[in-house]
Amino acid sequence: MNADLVVVGTGFFGLTVAERMASAGRRVLMIDRREHLGGNAYSEDEPTTGIEVHRYGAHLFHTANERVWEYANRFTDFTSYTHRVYTTHRGEVFPMPINLGTINQFFRSAYGPEAARALIREQAAELGDKNPENLDEQGVRLIGRPLYEAFIREYTAKQWQTDPRDLPASVISRLPVRYTYDNRYFNDPHQGLPVDGYTAWLERMADHPNIEVRLGTDFFDTSQPVHQRAVVGQVPVVYTGPVDRYFDYAEGELSWRTLDFDTEVLDVGDFQGTSVMNYADAEVPYTRIHEFRHFHPERDYPSDRTVIMREYSRFAERQDEPYYPVNTPEDRERLRRYRALMDGEQDVHFGGRLGTYQYLDMHMAIGSALSMVDNKLS
Ligand code: FAD
């Protein structure tokens, strides 16, 4: 094989490793089982409107990591987009995350920061010193019953298809409440969207004479020239696919939640006036609606059509796209055993959200790939 390194998976983790190693003079062969590069950050223009749609769910770039920010800016400029989220509850729209605006609208009040803080403290004390035994009690302990039941309870039940009384308290460790009217979703100093789209950014990372990309190539498909048994032991491998799949599920399957997306082109210029609207109530089956035109107000999109995407959440079957680790105690035990197996693999490095079974934002995937290059591959 004409490569010094095989990278399985062309998401941000794999691309960062490949780009760094290629720039250091190594020949890198990347494969991906999908027909496009970029992993879950991939986006494409909806053909009839030209509106950029994030195929695997809305992706907002944000980071406080200066090294990652500097690295990302080598491949793309960013717009000044600032992410804001609203939620619909009982026919009324509230700003999220919960802030002074949400509190005053919800309680029909005009509290200042201190009065609001005192109110939430008092409501959160309802359960006294009792240790929360489930997510319901944890929610009440964190922000008090009224706000928890309005904005978190049913939304979380939809995300997990499970009554929060049957979910462990550990699912939520904190629920941010801001005692200002600041409703920016992310606190990070750097945020924005790639000026000419995610796919242009992702393609530029792979655009190096030392990088070859083969799409539609599954690492476990033995009919392909580049597959697990042909490669491992011959060439160093960076593997960013699911860790349980790599070991043929020897320790059992790790559980994931997946999302279903229902995309629709509408004959209106603006459907909801904002990019993301959550639906907090159980009666609405989807968790949120994305309207992609609002991610790029600077672009010249058609004024009479728009693209929306409804998002539904459920537990993943083996054939589904794995999105968020469920992370039950059984999963954690399985992962511990998989880690022991990983340690036994010669010259195979496991990375990214699937390879390490953890949710990673894009900046975290890029940051941990840079660390892998520094610490294990250089
Ligand atoms: P991925 O992007 O998943 O790439 C893994 C690649 O490996 C895939 O292309 C897959 O096809 C390939 N692969 C798997 N198995 C095989 C195989 N057997 N053979 C060959 N190839 C294989 N991050 C943010 O910063 N902001 C956001 O707003 C945000 N929103 C998100 C919304 C959703 C719904 C999800 C799921 C994630 C979101 N993320 C967001 C996280 C972001 O998608 C990840 O950080 C990023 O995808 C991680 O990159 P990765 O390379 O680890 O994994």
From TrEMBL:
Record has Zinc as a keyword: no
Top-level taxon of origin: Bacteria
InterPro entries: UDP-GALP_mutase, UDP-GalPyranose_mutase_C
Species this chain originates from: Isoptericola sediminis
SUPFAM superfamilies: FAD-linked reductases, C-terminal domain (SSF54373), Nucleotide-binding domain (SSF51971)
A GO molecular function held by the record: UDP-galactopyranose mutase activity
Enzyme class, spelled out: isomerase
A GO term from the CC aspect: cytosol
Cofactor(s) required for function per UniProt: FAD
Catalytic activity: UDP-alpha-D-galactose = UDP-alpha-D-galactofuranose
Protein name, per record: UDP-galactopyranose mutase
Pfam family, one: NAD_binding_8
Functional summary from the UniProt entry: Catalyzes the interconversion through a 2-keto intermediate of uridine diphosphogalactopyranose (UDP-GalP) into uridine diphosphogalactofuranose (UDP-GalF) which is a key building block for cell wall construction in Mycobacterium tuberculosis.
Pathway the protein acts in: Cell wall biogenesis; cell wall polysaccharide biosynthesis
Transmembrane stretches, start-end: none
Self-association state and partner proteins as the record states: Homotetramer.
One BP term from GO: cell wall organization
EC number: 5.4.99.9
